[in-house]
Design goal:
The structure holds two protein chains of two kinds.
Chain A lengths: L2 H18 L11 H9 L3 E10 L2 E13 L2 E7 L5 E8 L2 E6 L7 H15 L6 E7 L2 E7 L4 E6 L5 E7 L5 E11 L2 E9 L4 E7 L3
Antiparallel strand pairs in A: 1-2, 1-12, 2-3, 3-4, 4-5, 5-7, 6-7, 8-9, 9-10, 10-11, 11-12
Chain B lengths: L7 H16 L4 E2 L3 H14 L2 E12 L4 E12 L3 E8 L3 E6 L2 E5 L4 E5 L4 H15 L8 E7 L3 E8 L2 H4 L2 E9 L5 E8 L4 E11 L12
Antiparallel strand pairs in B: 1-8, 2-3, 2-12, 3-4, 4-5, 5-6, 6-7, 8-9, 9-10, 10-11, 11-12
The chains are: A alpha+beta, B alpha+beta.
Chain lengths: 205, 214
Amino acid sequence: MPVWKTVLFLLSSLYLASSCATKAPLSAGIPAACRAVYENRGKDAHYRASVKVAGNHLSGILILKETSPDTTHAVFINETGFRFFDILVLTDTAVVAYLPERMNRPLIQRVLCLDMQLLAHPASTANPTIIRRNKQLSVTFANRRQSTEYRCNETCDTLDFILFRKNRMKKVKVKFDGVENQCYKHIVLSHVDLPVKLNLELIER
Amino acid sequence: MIILFKPWPIIVALLLFTLTASSQASFTITKDPDKIKAKIVTMSNQLESVKCDFTQEKSLSMLKEKVMSTGIFIFKKENKIRLEYRKPFTYLMILNAGKLFVKDNSHSSKTDLHKNQIFKQINQIIMDCINGNILNNKDFSSKILENTGFVKLNLQPLSDGMKSFISYIAVQFDKKDYSVSQIEINEVSGDKTTITFSNKEINARVEDSTFSFK
């Protein structure tokens, strides 16, 4: 068989193989039909929160409240009413308003800011830049996230997305499941490279 | 058509409003603090157990948001507490012999209270309020106020650690039996946690097994 025929055969086979392979499960952005849904939901809700951090278990209530059209407050309190954190999430910035002294560490601040931004603005593709002023931390979400891929169902009831690092390694996985009264019903957020997993269930009020 | 005017619902509503208003009437500094202290001490000496409902209201100053929880509170002398949250979700917390047991839907844990000093102090305050020992607590300066129905003990923290997050604690006693009816924890941040006790059963039979960690 001539060489060109072999090359053509191989290329055709590759094309066929790639066409028959399972459809890529995630897309580069939230489908347009669902974008508006996820831009506007989950910003005024109380969640029963359960957090696993390095084998430890924390539980309490996470409040996501939109205090202005572009600002969402994320406050976590435990069952007896003590605040664990208070983070202000704007479209392109997150500011740590409160963290207890013993938890006030750069890594914790950064992870919390990123996670709360993912919950408040799942459709945003901004990428965090850390700015430190004294002890208070401000995370600015400039540029684009390294890479985020989304998967929605047709009714926009569920949304999965994965935030990748620059080297395509998975960083954070988020799953929104169900919508009720313009709020997400169930959210699971897990870090791939950190032992952190957040589980949220909507509290009916 | 003749519409008969029935004034009694309005009268009842007004009466209820007046009664509520009088029970919440403003507090003034008591003229005889020793007499009130003696009554609180007498009550606490007689107190063996308390079983009641509670409502916890957390007010977040920055968000102007309130988080309400309700449940059952059980206390047994000397230092056993069971807090059973029923709404908005079930959550159990037991304090017994310096240990804290926590149980929610999927998880249970047992920790030594000595490992968490702030949590230990807060729980000690709640325990001291219920059993009357708060009057002897040297970590706070106190001021006694009263109105027609209640006595209020305002406690200002003295230690720097406590001062950094608690502004003051107000404990309200019901003058009918000098049992605690409300605990209000005011944080430096402006947040406030109010625990109100109702349907109290004083010295009801409470088994020790109520405080066992299962």
